[in-house]
């Protein structure tokens, strides 16, 4: 009867006893702008026998290049804003379609979580997860399981399920004002001067708009806003 697993004779086995070949380690790439967190994560995962950290990056450009070159089994990533998190998912998927992508983040906006799920992310993990939970999620994803791993609170999960598919009804007055100026072709810098607010505030509001409308670009956000009678 044929064995269930492939067997081979290893050179370090002088008696020629058949032993199974060890499973290859899952290759993990990290993307996080926080250096201390990223280095700690690399050290922790490096102690797991079945995992191998092949790259760690602090920005999306480097991560996209590394993913295109290395094609890691798993990409574990975070971003400064929810909109950058969505952009990261799209860029990394384009660079390495076969990689399994897990978001490890503090961002917990219900529309963002729902959008990530809708775009086929393989896992959403709060940064409050334990080491065992994180390793479990990576192993499930690297096994090419059809399941999505969601490790957060029931409250966040239920909020994501109950979030409006577009979130258009939840666009604030300030977000609508910024959308109107975007539709006129103004840049973030020009909008900040027009509304007398910081450019970073404009960027944050636009990120929220992208999440609520499920938009992938400024033009897409304007088109969706017009469709939803917001403009």
Report what the structure shows.
GO terms for molecular function: DNA binding. This is DNA-binding response regulator. InterPro entries: CheY-like_superfamily, NreC/VraR/RcsB-like_REC, Sig_transdc_resp-reg_C-effctor, Sig_transdc_resp-reg_receiver, Tscrpt_reg_LuxR_C, WalR-like. It contains ten helices and eight strands. The chain has 231 residues and is an alpha/beta fold. The chain folds into two domains: 137 residues, Response regulator (Rossmann fold, 3-Layer(aba) Sandwich), CATH 3.40.50; 60 residues, Arc Repressor Mutant, subunit A (Orthogonal Bundle). The strands form two sheets. Strands 4-3-5-6-7-8 form a six-stranded parallel sheet, sandwiched between helices. Strands 1-2 form a two-stranded antiparallel sheet. Helix 7 crosses helix 9, helix 8 packs across helix 9 and helix 9 packs across helix 10. The protein is elongated.
| Proper CATH architecture of the largest domain | 3-Layer(aba) Sandwich
Say what the CATH topology of the largest domain is: Rossmann fold
Q: Biggest sheet, strands in spatial order?
A: 4-3-5-6-7-8
Number of domain units? 2
The total strand number stands at: 8
Radius of gyration: 22 Å
Q: Specify the CATH homologous superfamily of the largest domain.
A: Response regulator
Number of separate helices: 10
CATH class of the largest domain: Alpha Beta
Structural class: alpha/beta
Residue stretches low in confidence (pLDDT < 50, at least 5 long) are 1-12
What share of the residues lie within helices? 40-55%
SSE order, as H and E? EEEHEHEHEHEHEHHHHH
Shape assignment:
elongated
Largest sheet: 6 strands, parallel
User: What quaternary form is this?
Assistant: single chain
In terms of DSSP E residues, the strand content is: 5-15%
The termini sit apart by 71 Å
Pfam families: GerE, Response_reg
Keywords: DNA-binding, Phosphoprotein
GO biological process, one term: regulation of DNA-templated transcription
Protein name: DNA-binding response regulator
